[in-house]
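Chapter summary example.
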Amino acid sequence: MHPAFSVIFFTVTSGAGYGMMSLLVLMSIFGFGPAIGTEETWVVGMGSLALITAGLISSTMHLANPKNAWRAFNRFRTSWLSREGVFAVLFYPFALLYMVVFHYNHGEHSGLSQLLGLFTIALAVITVFSTGMIYGCLKTIRQWNSALTPTNYIALGFAVGGVMVLAALDAMGVEIPSSATLAVLIIVIAT
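The structure predicted for these 191 residues follows.
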């Protein structure tokens, strides 16, 4: 089996982007990890959206006719690919609104920003789960036809995203106690 480079690129970059955004929101709302301000949230959040966008654009490259990518949205009830597309599109306004509201509240959370953050996390997890189910429901590939496939997609997305968040925050000078240990722990848990 030799998957197209665009599929590998899409899977890694979009999964990392969704993991980055989810962990950023978790750190921000629940104090999970280092204290981050509006500038760090904005930089890491926009970086995660850039990764997601690059991944989604690359995913159209392995279609027979990329101009017809919009048709993937038509079969939401029966197609994991359609669900993935719909949830990926729904993710953007919630993530952007979360970052804008957090920014205008000067790094303080309101009920609205917390609600937007929770919707952002939920949509990120559902989107990555849908991506995993595209492959998990393939009966022709026995190794992928498992309930563990979407679970692995979520775990690895959070792992790569977590390491990228830690690296970005470290590069911006945010104090992260034992960041290397935390990065390794995230990867170990995912694998």
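To summarize the output: The chain is about 70% helix and 0% strand.
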